[in-house]
Fold these 2 entries.
Entry 1:
Amino acid sequence: MLGDITKIAKPQPKTTSRMSNLLQNIAKLQMMLADMEADVGIRDIGVIEKSVLSAIVDLTEGAPLASTKEILAHPLNEVYSRPSLFRALKNLENLGRITKGGEKRGLYTLVDEGV
Amino acid sequence: MLNPVGFSIKEHLQNFVIVSVFYITAYSLTLGFVAPLQQMLFSNVITELSLLFLPHGVRVLVVYFFGWRGVLYLIPSAYLMKILSSQAGIPLDPWSPLFNIIACYVGFQLVKFALPERFSGAQLPKWRDFGLVALCGSIFNSAGMTLLHQNELDLFIALGYVIGDMAGFFVCFFILIYAFRFARLLAKVDDA
């Protein structure tokens, strides 16, 4: 039985395992630092997230809530695709920078400490 | 060519160089920037005690990633920096570099023993776990350093070592955060 397994298992190239060791350590370090960034509240947000956040800041100047339709149509977000903008909204919500508000769906407002 | 523990000599050399570069950089920053600033601002603090000891963060990461081999990787650069410290007018006990590293390793092993699920490899340890390793290692380190340099356990000085190590640990991690951010920014500029 063991012999069968050893026959099937292909030996891994040495260079790949060595490189993956180093890359694994770097990946672990980056994940741990990302966790620290999130906990300390200094996590950097992407370009699209910044654009969406700016659009919401602009839209909520005159009204308490900004609708998804308004956010997508905002001049700052014209260059981005709809899926990217929806992903950015979700990321911002997960990061606690914006929150859903109102009784209808698709309405967002800024979280005070995120501004 | 693989040695009995399954690592090639080239890999050991690579790890040793990476560890040495980071340790020497962190120590040089402490020695060349933090120590003079500390002497200016807190002239009553003894020279052997650094209130922002950056190499502690490097030591914690090295013992986590390389285990006991990390201790061996750290020894040459630790002694090199001990010599440079003496040249800079900060005389250290000959045993202190070795003691610093071993204290950190013992701290790591104790935390690993107390929280086996966090360091089992099944999940990535959180930065708080590293903080715990840093604290545990620092407590051993401060007790040893106080005994080595003062010949008695002075709690006030021991607390100073802990504060210096922990402040160094946090600052070291923040430097890494911003270094990775800068690397990502450079990659974006390269792509554009």
Entry 2:
Amino acid sequence: MAARNANSPAAAQNDTKVERTSDREVVVTRTFNGPARIVFEAWTQPELFKRWWAPKSLNMPILSVEQDVRVGGSYKLVFGHDASQSMAFHGRYLEVKPPSRLVWTNEESGDQGSVTTVTFEEKGGKTLLTLHELYPSKEALDVSGGAADALPEQFAQLDALLASMGARV
Amino acid sequence: MVQFYQTHLDASFAALSDPTRRGVLEQLGRADASISDLAEKFHMTLTGMKKHVGVLEEAGLVTTEKIGRVRTCKLGARRLEEEMRWIESYRQLWAARFDELDKIVEELTRKEKADGRKKRK
């Protein structure tokens, strides 16, 4: 993984590193070429957040972003190709410390939700971002993953759930 | 990450360094077995076999499940491969997101510098 970047020294692209630090935890790190203030803004302003959270490769456009970025405030992200086939991710902010720390819960799967902590450390005009996810169990981490290929599966589950509830979306 | 896998590999190799444990894996490759089955097959005490199975379990090579009073052992060798696949798909998602975020951060940083220059004039 690291070798790919080492082979192209011309690329200014910073490396995204992922480490599973325990059965229930995963840590992602990445450096951004800008001050923490700006990186933090891109996580907390819906218009900016919307532009990067659902990259094309995810094949799952983001329909709406609501963020009430304060301690206890909630957020809701809706993904999908259209409103009739969408799924929502939601939770609450536990800590909001601009521009250095953001902690929120992921409550879409009920009690089995994870807690995400993002820290922004500025050094020489660059920002080291560390994203830490803590899952309630190894099983929860394995099935969730936040991984790209997990999404369609969750969609199918949601469809089934909505159908069973006779919900109008 | 390298360190994480190093630890796992070390545990795997340590587990495989013992002939009894290799035999147990071979046996479990044929069929699941209880600890007492294995102890009997390898002419060992229950405690001795428990220790071996514990080492294999620690390395992720074997999984055990207790049903009633019997602990059944099965092969769990795919764990490492699955974890690597999990990590790779997770990394791909975040790398894609962060590549986009990169563009926004650089755009905003440039804009801010340009605005700053304008203000100073």
